Amino acid sequence: MKIKKGDNVMVLSGNDKGKTGEVLEVIPKTEKVIVKGINIRKKHVKAAPNREGGIMASEFPIHSSIVNIVCPKCGKATRIGYVIENDKKFRVCKKCGAKIN
Hints:
The chain has strands at residues 8-11, 20-27, 32-35, 40-45, 54-59, 62-63, 67-70, 77-78, 80-85, 88-93, 99-100. By secondary structure, the chain is mainly beta. The strands form three sheets. Strands 6-3-2-1-7-8 form a six-stranded antiparallel sheet, with no helix packed on it. A hairpin with a 5-residue loop joins β10 (88-93) and β11. The protein is elongated, with a radius of gyration of 17 Å. The protein starts with 7 loop residues before the first strand and ends with a strand.
């Protein structure tokens, strides 16, 4: 997967289309990502000794194919390519060619 934890991404389709957020977790086995503030669902949680019970809102995973990385240089959602320089592999923006860390 070309998306990594900590990347800033934009949602391309669905209820949260056009929203941006930071990737909190990447799940490569199912090709899903959890993005901060995106796909929020309410979940009923039973009380435990260390927490209260009730209805809690949390982010649920979305498929990685409906998010694109936002380039830090041009500020647009873009596809990602790879470039090898001095035996190191870098991710690059397909629109402006800037390196993405």
